[in-house]
Amino acid sequence: MKAFASPALQRVADGNLCSGCGLCAGISRGAVAMTMRDPGFARPVQSRPLSPTMETLVAEACPGLAVASWDTDVPGAARGPDPLWGPALSTSVGHATDPVLRFAGASGGALSGLLAHALASGLVEAVLHVEPDPDDPLGNRMRWSRTGAEVEAGSGSRYAPSSPLAAIDGALAAGRRFAFVGKPCDVSALRRLALHDPRVAARVPLILSFYCGGLPSRRGAVGVVAAMGVSLTEVTGFRYRGNGWPGLARAVTSRGEERTMTYAQSWGEHLSREVQFRCKICPDAVGASADIACADAWFGDADGYPTFDEQDGRSLIQARTERGQAFLEDALRAAAVVAEPIDVSAIEAMQPFQARRKRAIRYRVAACKVLGRPVPEMRGTRVAEAARQAPLGERLRAFFGTLRRLARKSARS
Ligand SMILES: Cc1cc2nc3c(=O)[nH]c(=O)nc-3n(C[C@H](O)[C@H](O)[C@H](O)COP(=O)(O)OP(=O)(O)OC[C@H]3O[C@@H](n4cnc5c(N)ncnc54)[C@H](O)[C@@H]3O)c2cc1C
Ligand code: SF4
Ligand code: SF4
């Protein structure tokens, strides 16, 4: 450990708890930078000491150390959150009304429809979100969108590292009001930062997120491209999905060729196998700290598993805060999105993986603790309540599976 190493960052590294959100870099005035580390995750590298204020911010807001409480850290959050699906003032299924956004979006383009409305209605001047990196088609970079067409350029899910908070200080200092879109862990970090930095509440009137099955390393995407039979150096454009629901992974080459792969294959056989450790113990992968969270409103088959059959996009939409609910109602009135209410109990059939994972967190965390590994503070995320819903088999698999995997890893290192 270098003399200037931040104790907070050291603890994150010791537990392999980094999610790659970029917050530590974003508040560090250049003392920390995000870099790509094997097997392809964005991770912080510290080059100078952090001031005591920065150290406190990292210790309090880094999602590897603490996750935003649904009870105390989210202004105007709905009371009585569901342990699996989080707080919600409304739960509905719908899509962007604009057919271009619906088609381009990952599921029904609801996030893009809402973002376009936030701009059109004057709620915000810009949107800070992720888009494909033109210099690295498998990778991501942040973009500012100021029109619906620009929002569309950032639509679709990118199953590769993103660090939406890596330049957050500059974004807040610029003085414009903006909407923020990030993974649930990014949103958690922003909510925790807001407890210390009043600029977040003043500048960011809309925070959106999505359900997150875990973030794969770049190696996942490299595997998809290899399985398509394309050389990485030939790839000039890459979409993970979208342009349909779920849409195909699509690589475009410098020779003008196009190769595709189904979502079931790209996620099931490549990307899901490369998910980072922090995701395995994620207590809030449903964007419960956001104002509004969207997800795939999958149709289940006879066994209750999503079919992934290609069809018109459908988004699950949960308004989680008073602000999110008021904005959603405004977007519905303006016909930017359409949505029909559903009962929260209907989500499990659409998202069986998320349900199982949330029920498993307490047992996976227990395995980490048995091995003396640090874990993030998870107060207020209903981990214990969710765990009580787990059948015995799930509990045992979660605990002993995690114990075995971690023990095997430490034996190797
Ligand atoms: C890593 C990952 C895992 C996911 N796992 C699940 C899951 O388990 N279940 C589920 O229902 N949905 C999951 N999603 C979300 C899902 O794919 C859709 O984003 C969601 O249904 C909303 O669709 P939409 O059409 O409304 O979004 P769109 O209108 O397509 O908008 C998507 C927005 O998300 C932003 N975005 C895309 N990729 C990233 C990224 N890597 N980091 C930060 N922001 C990003 C874009 O910039 C855009 O603003 C995941 C997404 C990602 C990126
Ligand atoms: S999770 Fe975010 S804040 Fe924490 S170490 Fe990783 S990049 Fe930094
Ligand atoms: S699963 Fe959780 S930790 Fe992993 S990327 Fe998604 S929100 Fe972040």
Description:
The chain is of the alpha+beta class and 413 residues long. The protein is built from 17 helices and 13 strands. It has helices at residues 7-15, 23-26, 52-61, 99-104, 110-120, 148-153, 168-173, 184-194, 199-203, 218-227, 263-270, 277-280, 322-333, 347-350, 352-370, 383-388, 392-412, and strands at residues 32-37, 41-46, 90-96, 126-133, 136-145, 178-181, 206-210, 235-239, 249-253, 258-261, 292-296, 315-319, 337-341. The protein has an 8-stranded mixed sheet with strand order 5-4-6-7-11-12-3-13, with helices on both faces. It has a 3-stranded antiparallel sheet with strand order 8-9-10. A two-stranded antiparallel ribbon has the order 1-2. Helix 15 packs across helix 17. The structure holds flavin-adenine dinucleotide (FAD) and iron/sulfur cluster (2 copies).
